[in-house]
């Protein structure tokens, strides 16, 4: 599932990427199960985020598989 711009969400147990599933482009939380945890850096600094298998990418560092 494609991510929505550079929007992200930091909450344990939820994928960090916001996605769009409708034609209007309204962002929502990625519904996929979390499989990875890593760190993501933006203008505000570093964030520890959880990720589904489809959104783990080169923007995450120190990625490790989490137990579900």
Topology:
Layout: E1 3-8, E2 17-20, E3 27-29, E4 36-42, E5 45-51, E6 60-65
Antiparallel strand pairs: 1-2, 2-3, 4-5, 4-6
**Number of distinct helices:** 0
Q: Which percent bin holds the helix content?
A: under 10%
The separation of the N and C termini measures: 21 Å
Number of domains: 1
* SSE order, one letter for each helix or strand: EEEEEE
Shape: globular
| SS content category | mainly beta
Strand content: over 45%
Largest sheet: 3 strands, antiparallel
Q: Give the beta-strand count.
A: 6
Calculate the mean pLDDT score and round it.
86
- The strand order across the widest sheet is 1-2-3
What radius of gyration results from the CA coordinates? 11 Å
Low-confidence sequence ranges = none
Brief sketch in words of this structure:
The protein is mainly β and 68 residues long.
């Amino acid at each position: 599932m494609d991510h929505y711009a550079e929007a992200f969400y930091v909450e344990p147990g939820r994928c960090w990427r916001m996605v769009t599933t409708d034609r209007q482009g309204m962002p929502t939380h990625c519904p996929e199960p979390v499989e990875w945890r890593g760190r993501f850096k933006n203008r505000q600094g570093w964030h520890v985020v959880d990720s589904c298998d489809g959104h783990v990418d080169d923007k995450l560092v120190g990625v490790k598989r989490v137990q579900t």
